[in-house]
Amino acid sequence: MGSTVKGNAGCAYFGVRLVRHVERDLDDLVRRGFTGVLHTYSENDLAYYRDTMKRIVEASHARGLEVQMNPWGLGRTFGGEAESRFVTMNPDACQVLDDGRRVAAACLNNPRYRSFCAEWADAALDAGADLVFWDEPHWVVPEHVGVDDATRWSCRCDVCRERFGRDFPAELDEEVLAFREASLVDFLGELTAHVRGQGGRNTICLLPAVEGAHGVQNWDAVASLPGVDVFATDPYWKSFGEEAGPFVRRFAKLLVETASRHGVASELWVPAFRLTAADIPDLEDAVSAARAAGVERVWVWAYEACAHMSHLATSDSLEVWERASELLAAPTQRITEAARADHADLDLRSSVELVSLMSVQDATVPSAVAAAGDDIAAAVDEVVERMPRGGRLIYVGAGTSGRIAAVDAAECESTFSMPAERVVALVAGGAAASALEQESAEDDVSAGARELGQLAPSSNDVVVGISASGRTPYVLGAVRAARDAGSLTVALVCAPGSELAALADRAIEVVVGPELVAGSTRLKAGTAQKLVLNMLSTVSMIRLGKTYGNLMVDVAASNEKLRERVRAIVRVATGAEERQADEALEAAGGSAKVAIVSLLAGVDAAAARERLKSSDDNVRGALR
Do residues 467 and 397 lie in contact, with contact meaning Cβ atoms separated by under 8 Å? Predict the structure, then answer.
């Protein structure tokens, strides 16, 4: 069994038990870039295919794939279309509805069923599963057992009545709902503890619901179980009649927050089954939402979008599968290069339609940037710690990324009087080169390393590599050289799990999804990079005392407009009359900081300069 939880792109696989055919499909998964596979293990497999399942797991491991194994349809209490032998042979261990009917679904509280689930888990571990995947554990859904009345509920069997402590009320009230949830959590706790006791590991995948008859209100109670290694959910929006983006974002956020609180990995499943070509944009939105929320492992159900299973297939299954593979398992540059299926007629649309569509696309960028807020703030803190020691903020980029970096670096000199050599931008091909020359220079990894080396980087410097795809050779070369020199390195990328992010000390991943014009990362990716660099430089300068409140008191007044701005800043900061402010500025040699300290502290310009010098050039500190 594997020693660590790995595999950020996995796929469910089921329905084939001829090993040579499975091996062919596993090879296909590996070629596509998947790193994990979930094999369903039904009660039929348990009875008749145990050795076959071992061989299938062995074949998966031989190809470097992580293996999860789920109790497909076990006892009719887990997800899956497989039938249950247990309920046929143990009717007295099945659930009882509120109207007294016993139905074909095992009772989660029945000791015999719990023992059977443990035996199944032993078989899964014996087959070699890296993770036992407890899939959508739930009390019976009436329609799944032929009961047309959706208001019916369970379980009122003798075992449940004894655990409840008295007769159940007639209605499914809050007390009964709490009992059902506590029983489910206890059931999962017992099974995950059993697996952990055998040296195994567990994934629990909850239905995307926190209310109603089948929702789990307290996700923390499940994620905190001692035997849990991966916490998952599967927000299949079509199954719940929901809009893809908001639905996935809601549960991705809940998933990541819950998993983080308990130190377990987060995993989110997206559907490929029952999707048509018209649904592909929803799939793209779902994957982008999961990535933006910080989900560590995004998996898909299932291989070839279940094209082999008529109940779950559509006429577009294979087209959907190709797109799902690109989104989840292809090299990271594919995400920034991807072409949205719903934009195939872009050149046929009117100007009004295109402007509207572009506005809608651009409106998604700020939320993606905000989702990376903690990582941006952490990078700011690194800059603020190092610059007072003589360190520099060094940007490295190619093409659009480089040009955006050059603009931001230049603005720091004029806006904050930060010397040009303290905030530097390295642009592939050189800042003076033409756009085409800059674009062609991005493939030169040695040039990146060489040009960064010419700056003599040190441990006091912060070097920010900027690349939409996270794989630009020039940037990789420079960041690697900076890291080797001991500089603090930061990756600013728009693709998840990139080479650049893995190389750097800190990563800022702003995943904005496919562009309006496929591959044109000057659009959303460029906007995202500009917003992040705005934050990185501006917040760093604020923290370094380059403002007083929200006033740019260190602006370099190099023209009449800026000189008038400085005069206005002094008046606003001090409340002084125009003549008094002008006199203070003249005595201060045009320095807004010196003039403000002089006026507010009631000292002359020389004393104001001394105060600023002793407070690291910080106005507020000089006034204490």
Answer: yes
